[in-house]
Specification:
mainly alpha; 5 helices
Length: about 110
């Protein structure tokens, strides 16, 4: 039971900020590695990195509509991942989740 709680806490920390994702990577070291925490670390890290990468280009569009759609899409994905971690489920993010799992498979 304690291991599940620790894994769940690590997964939740991963979704807090990009710094939280880095902290969660260190929390999920080799001796205490959890498949559940690793899954959510990959999802959250991919979400944050894609937000910064794509947000840079969306910002140049100089369009309120493009920016609003981007932020809403990002926020919905973040809520989906965060609630999945809170509920103790391993659900991939829609559209990008499988890509993040393959891209960060070493974490």
């Amino acid at each position: 039971m304690e291991n599940l709680d620790k894994s769940k806490n690590t997964a939740i920390v991963a979704y807090l900020t990009i710094v939280g994702s880095v902290i969660a990577i260190f929390m999920n070291q080799e001796e205490n590695k959890s498949a559940f925490a690793s899954f959510h670390i990959r999802q959250a890290l991919g979400l944050f990195l894609s937000f910064f990468l794509l947000g840079y280009f969306v910002g140049y569009a100089d369009s309120w509509y493009a920016s609003s759609a981007f932020y809403i899409f990002y926020f919905v994905l973040w809520i989906y991942g965060f609630t999945s971690a809170l509920q103790g489920q391993m659900r991939e993010l829609p559209v990008v989740g499988a890509f993040f799992q393959n891209l960060f498979k070493t974490l």
